[in-house]
Amino acid sequence: MDMSGARDDRAARGAPAARERLVVIGGDAAGMSAASQARRLRGPGELEIVAFERGHFSSFSACGIPYWVGGDVDERDRLIARTPEEHRARDIDLRMRTEVTEIDVAAGRVRARQVDSGAEYWTSYDKLVIATGARPIRPAMPGADAPGVHGVQTLDDGEALLDTLARARGRRAVVVGAGYIGVEMAEALINRGYEVTVVNRGTEPMSTLDPDMGRLVHEAMAGLGITMVGEAEVTKVLTGEDGRVRAVATQDAEYPADVVVLGIGVRPETGPARAAGLPLGPHGGLLTDLAMRVRGHENIWAGGDCVEVLDLVLGQERYVPLGTHANKHGQVIGTNVGGGYATFPGVVGTAVSKVCDLEIARTGLREKDARRVGLQFETVTIESTSRAGYYPGASPMTVKMLAERRTGRLLGVQIVGREGAAKRVDIAAVALTAGMTAEQMTALDLGYAPPFSPVWDPVLVAARKAAAKVRDGAR
């Protein structure tokens, strides 16, 4: 449909032309955080806010979907922070089931299409926020779109998966990929009583860890009854006479499946932004300045899973799609759009996850990250406990630390253990952000009592070992 002469919907709705308009593309974490913060700073009489969301839900926690599917969260609506009606009550014109298909930067407008009716119209903007998120990677192979094959990114995806689980004739599941989503979904399916096989291209699960630490995760998954197939790539999804999935195939084997979950990661959803000529980084995400303004465009901002962020350890752009970043991006954008001032300086790559009672955490660089950029480093791995060894409930914990050779600068930390292990990575995240050395970390005044840690916290034990290794190397 040629809409070049279509009326802008501001005129069609009779909105005052003098009012500045903010258009937000995306109704989840980054987009609606930006809209809400802008509304706090500027009232409806000063700023009109129009937001578009192509799905059925707004402001939801995608990170909680595996726990909803697994039954830890008892209902979908517990994952929704704010409904469309609640946003509208705050004078944000949130238009659901409406996707933006085109951004016309020169004219300052976007083309919107109503998903259910197909109706299209243009909406002009004075300021634009792009928060289009990410899409699950769906490999280009036969059968990838067959009924029973699911990506897990939105609440719609979660509902579709739960529907398949309720209707499946058998109890066999295959998870493709063993990153955060793959591992979490494997646990969720085990909790649902499924026989679970995880097929992974890497030798060990959790490629965000070094292989020696990933091995600990592998052992824990095997202990849960999850079959791990490493160094294997799914080449096709096999279907039955009814067209539904019946198995996945690698080059060497077939694995029966009544449901398949794709857990091989996500890509930034930047189709309209790319077509509009907005700047993208090496990973396909939008590039912004510290204020989250799209580079080279005064009145366009972007945040969330569709952008690349500065890695403060590497000094390079990375693609790190996490809800924590998205909410911070939205706050920064909304503050700047609303007339204030805020920046997002970057990340150090902190993430946590779990497999049942095994906690997994990392921040900073892995060994291969450091090697890739030419850093020389020392590594140490220590075994400790979550509490004083004599206190009831103390559980084992493994901490791996990387420090730069000669300078001793902290480069990265990985932790695998039981209760109380994962959040200890926050100590290292703060140290990385501050540019501390392993030696400086040893003097950190951390809280101590036997129910919470040994007298030397495991992270500080690793720092002592790393500092000593750096000193020995210097000598």
TrEMBL record:
A GO molecular function held by the record: oxidoreductase activity
Alphabetical list of InterPro entries matching this protein: FAD-bd_OxRdtase, FAD/NAD-bd_sf, FAD/NAD-binding_dom, FAD/NAD-linked_Rdtase_dimer_sf, Pyr_nucl-diS_OxRdtase_dimer
Obligatory cofactor(s): FAD
Superkingdom assignment: Bacteria
Domain FAD/NAD(P)-binding: 21-312
Recorded coiled-coil stretches: none
N-terminal signal peptide: none
Keyword Cytoplasm annotated: no
UniProt keyword terms in alphabetical order: FAD, Flavoprotein, Oxidoreductase, Redox-active center
Domain Pyridine nucleotide-disulphide oxidoreductase dimerisation: start-end pairs: 353-455
Keyword Disulfide bond: no
Pfam families registered for this protein in UniProt: Pyr_redox_2 (PF07992), Pyr_redox_dim (PF02852)
Similarity comment: family membership: Belongs to the class-III pyridine nucleotide-disulfide oxidoreductase family.
Protein name as catalogued: Flavoprotein oxidoreductase
Organism: Streptomyces spiralis
